[in-house]
Predict the structure.
Amino acid sequence: MRRVLWILTLVAAVAALVVFGQRWMVEVPNRTVELVYDLPGLLQLSQESGVPASSYLEDLRKLGLKTIAIQPESLGERMLSGGEVPADVKEHLPDDLSELGKFITLPLSFAEDHFSLVQAAGLQAAPKLNTVPWEVAPLWLAAAPELLILSGQGVMEREQLQGSQAVLALVEFSAPALEEADPSRVVRLHGISAREMKVLSDQRIINRYIRAVRERNMRVLYVRPFMEEDGGWERSVQLLENLAERLQDAGFELGTAEPFAPWQPAQALIAVTAVGICAAAVLYGQMLFPAWAGLVTSGGVLAYLGSLVLLMVSPGLAKQGLALAAAIVFPSLAVECQWGKTHLQRYLSVFSISLLGALFVVGTLSGTQFLVKMEEFRGVKLMHVAPIALVFFSIVRPVREWLKKEVPVRWLIAAGCLGLVGVFYVLRTGNFGIPVLEFEVQAREALENFLRVRPRTKELLIGHPALYLALRSRQPRRSWLLPLAVIGQLSLVNTFTHTHTFLWVSLLRTIYGGVFGYVLGWLVWQAYQWGKRWLDRDLGLRVLRIR
């Protein structure tokens, strides 16, 4: 039975590989990055320096920039200037002043002279639109923009786009849901706020932009000038020149951002890929519950039939569900399948099965909408916890006998410490968890500069070294290091759930993590063996020996 399940999994992997190849061909040609400059920042700098904004725009044109972002006046700016707030806007404002904060940054109106200023300099205007409860006059239509910058929360209705066929740039971490939008006219935009520009070094700013382009498919970079006290226009120009040089060195071209080509794999490929995910889930279920093999198999068949129905009714949700199942099952299955005679062979077998899971994730999270993050992987927290729980459960089987055991106090203390580490681990997942420490940021950037793409920390420092040490233990399949080891495997699969990252970046990151993690595990093992030999020597100190 298990042989049949493996055959089904491997045959389905061929379908996932076809989807992988399709995505690769869509990603490779898209190498053009567009720089968009912030007009509000230029106007503020002009006031501080006394230099006309038109002069700055002329400098930007000579540097090769073509697009200037125009932002409408906000409610807060109107109120601070003492201007009148329109009656239809007042109707949407809360009576409680404590709730006014979320409204003051919303736009009221564009200024016609801003568009005239940009067009007089021979540059293209890129209006910034936001989701607002009131109507903002579409003065930008007369400028016939080729790029619209979209931000805000909630849904941006089709009427707000006024029938424009411009490319839509979604602001990272502040992108609205688009009503019936075509993913093949969408690009992603990364910007650095004015507050961050004041505190970050030029090198850190450039590193962030390069990372956004290389690792998160950003094709529009929103650039702001430095104010007079922070270096002014001279530093701003130097930053632009250095950024352009770094982008070209990284293999990208400067120009007009182009969306990804329309891509939607055939439903039949997704259906075949689902066979492999369900077969692997049944395989792992039978390993966990061998006495209930028939029930597990029946559950797998029902799950597959349900996925087919969902694929017809709601394809996006079906793809997300299948990807989540693969992200949970394959890392857990990998640590159970320790094949080979040598430590290296067993390490590679575990690594390969996790890679197989990554392939199934790529095969399900498919379509242009995933590349531009209009749809994305769901269940990040669950996929970071479930495999650890499953592996822990497999270690302590049978549960009844394990629960009857007496547990030393030191084990309880250790369990409490591990629990705190686990909470920290879960909170660090996702984009909005515990912030990264400064020294860790510096270490990450150093690795990026040295390796071009850095391996993931959870794989390099925790998961893969723990796997190596577990494989060197007396009972590799029941080692207490396996819950730590599976962190590396689930992180490997999780890398490929970031569909807005180029496949070659994810592959290179994964290889780095596997190789360097193995080496680090070997070094830890050698240090451990050296420590044992040193403590085993009789120095007359009665030191507690490690056995």
